[in-house]
Design a protein that fits this description.
By secondary structure, the chain is an alpha/beta fold. The chain has one domain: Rossmann fold (3-Layer(aba) Sandwich), CATH 3.40.50. It contains twelve helices and eight strands. An eight-stranded mixed beta sheet has the order 1-2-4-3-5-6-7-8, with helices on both faces. Strand 7, helix 11 and strand 8 form a beta-alpha-beta unit. The longest helix has 29 residues. The N and C termini lie far apart (63 Å).
């Protein structure tokens, strides 16, 4: 039951994506939480941070199951900004400081996996609507959308359902919703479920560290002191396992997007680690195969995280893609203008 596992494991994995606030490149001084009210059709409160020149191309960063805005590493965000972009990262519904859907039905992952979707209180379409609604709240007409893991699936859904809001799509360590691809390794599930559940902050941090050793990038080591500090920060910000289950249910209930992805006509970039044991690289390949003209980047020894040793490279690759799309858009706009003296 890979989707069930993803919903439970994600909180343990999330700290792998974080920076240490003690690192001067990772300070949050310029990334303070802000709140957008009455966002999207659901009228939610969405917590977000924004960095960079407001006139620069906007990059909307969407995280995965149980992950929060802060799981986009600050150094990665600042690297994007250094290339002339602005970034907006935010807490999805049921994560971090954004609205938690506490009045929703109790999520039943087992039932959803068996085909009974009655406990699914929302779908990825609703989460994509939240993201589009945040752009509305910020006065941004269109953005370059970048998603990781479940965030990649939300980004794909946003491109499908809100094509006029998406300049380009970058899907990282994600999949199409087809259960035949992008699944966790059975060994990973056994390893992650072999210990007791965490009930205290210290246990939660220890569980993060254990998950880091299991699903991280073998060629790009993490700093366990950094992970322990940032795992505690994530725990203090929000620790809602029922909300995590609701997100997991939404992912499963949303089904396979492959046919709809084939109809997309926008610039797309897919990035996936060859050593990803949480979402097999087949998910990234299937996404790239489905979207016409997609650029596929496969990285040796990268797992299901954004490790310190890859942050600069990933930021450079995404920024180069985004700026190329921006230049192409400007070239097309110029070519469509009537020449002087013509009508």
């Amino acid at each position: 039951m890979p989707e069930l596992a993803e919903g439970i494991i994600a909180p343990m994995i999330a700290a792998l994506l974080m920076d240490s606030p003690t690192n001067p490149l990772a300070t949050n001084a310029l990334l303070e939480d802000q709140r957008a009210l009455n966002v999207g059709p659901a009228r939610l409160e969405i917590a977000y941070q924004r960095l960079g020149d407001r006139a620069a191309p906007a990059v909307l960063l969407i995280m995965g199951v149980a992950a929060q805005s802060i799981h986009w590493p600050d150094s990665f965000c600042r690297a994007l900004v250094s290339h002339g972009l602005q970034i907006i990262r935010f807490d999805n519904r049921d994560a971090g400081l954004s609205t938690h859907m506490r009045d929703a039905p109790v999520p039943d992952l087992q039932a959803v996996l068996a085909g009974d979707l009655s406990s699914a209180s929302y779908r990825l379409s609703d989460m994509a609507a939240d993201a589009a609604g945040l752009l509305d709240a910020l006065g941004i007409d269109r953005a370059h959308v970048v998603g990781a893991s479940m965030g990649g699936q939300i980004a794909q859904t946003m491109a499908i359902e809100y094509p006029d809001r998406v300049f380009s799509l970058t899907s990282m360590m994600s999949t199409t919703g087809n259960r035949a691809v992008g699944q966790p390794s059975p060994d990973v599930l056994r390893e992650l479920f072999s210990g007791p559940s965490a009930t205290t902050r210290d246990e939660f941090v220890a569980q993060f560290l254990r998950a880091a050793r299991i699903v991280g990038s073998p060629g790009y080591p993490s700093d366990e002191a950094e992970l322990a500090e940032t795992a505690g920060r994530a725990f203090d910000r929000s620790n809602d396992m029922v909300a995590t289950a609701r997100q997991a249910v939404a992912t499963v209930a949303s089904g396979d997007r492959t046919d709809r992805l084939r109809k997309l006509r926008l610039p797309a970039l897919v990035i996936h680690g060859m050593a990803d044991r949480m979402c097999d690289v087949s998910g990234g390949r299937a996404t790239a195969e489905a979207i016409p003209g997609t650029e596929l980047v496969l990285i040796e020894d990268m797992g299901h995280n954004i490790p310190p040793g890859l942050r600069k490279q990933l930021a450079e690759r995404i920024a180069e893609f985004v700026l190329r799309v921006e230049a192409d858009c400007k070239d097309r706009a110029r070519s469509q203008r009537p020449e002087a003296g013509t009508t």
